[in-house]
Amino acid sequence: MSGILDYIGWRGDLSFQQDPPNAVDALIFSTLVYIRYGGHVEAEPNREITLRDAAEEYFALEDPENRVRVKNDLELLRLAAESRRFGFTRLVGYEDVLLPQQETQFAACTYLLDDGSAFLAFRGTDSSLIGWKEDFNMTFQQTIPSQRMAQQYVRRIAAEYPLPLRLGGHSKGGNLAVFAAARSSPMVQQRILEVYNNDGPGFTDYMMGDPGYLAMVPRIKTFIPQSSVIGMLLEHEERYTVIRSRQMGILQHEPYSWEVMGNAFLPVEGVSEDSKFLDATIKAWVAGMTNEERNQLVDTMFSLLSSGDAETTWDLLQPRNWKTFLKALSSDSGIRHMLSGELQNLLDAARQAHHTMSQEKLLDEESQGA
What we know:
By secondary structure, the protein is an alpha/beta fold. Strands 1-2-3-4-5-6-7-8 form an eight-stranded mixed beta sheet, with helices on both faces. A two-stranded antiparallel ribbon has the order 9-10. The model has no long low-confidence stretch (mean pLDDT 88). It is globular, with a radius of gyration of 21 Å. It has two domains: 269 residues, Rossmann fold (3-Layer(aba) Sandwich); 81 residues, no CATH class.
């Protein structure tokens, strides 16, 4: 079955004037923003440059393969840059920020399309521990720094480019796109055509009744794979579309696994039982903690993971860092007690979720047999 790379080969000869942007295009822009462009894109972020020229500069760097999230990103950039549809889009407003002390990881880029609109793409979580820490902070903070930066980014781009706008992102980037749209002024919201949330987490309860969020809900297009984990986290007011992935479990979060038919994703009836079970378990586990307890747990976990010299998720796999983690864990009874207690709470939440789902399934079977 086809994916986004195949889509470019099939649809890449059509301009956005000939065929308006769709959800597959949105995922492509939301994945391209993972590229750490470098060159003029980074040095002169307010200068417009075509994707084709940006790609040429990128591949001229000494280590282009070491600047990407996954190897497929290189192929995506190459194919998109060579196509008529994406190659002549103009990049502007590139930002890439990592602030460890503020626990902030943020990146965004605006793509100016030939149909006279702009697509504002927000990067999801990168491989930095800071980026992952910020994600976990969502469970107990009403807003996180990257959400506020996304809000400011939309305000600035909207002021500089009085065009119709589309916003989007993958993973945390989808959450940032929704947040920025929800917190935009009514005048800017009127210019937002669509917001694409590609398997991004929701929000804590405070956002559910937010007037700006509710005003944007009809224009939010949320897509999750059938075994979604990330996209089911926290709360969503908007409806979501479940789509088919070639992968299994958490690996379905990867955009290259999403199946495409024509100019749309291949839909399925609903999320899997495993996804429902994990969602119910995590929600029950998180709901059983106060904000202070969530904060303490997240700080403790990342303090432990940072006890070595790990700065990225890849570093965590190094044996020297595992030795440091285990040494820190063995020397601190308080940390061991907290983690073992929360592990027990997680297991209890899983048992409760399994019991509830079993009862619901039994009742459903009885009602169908009646």
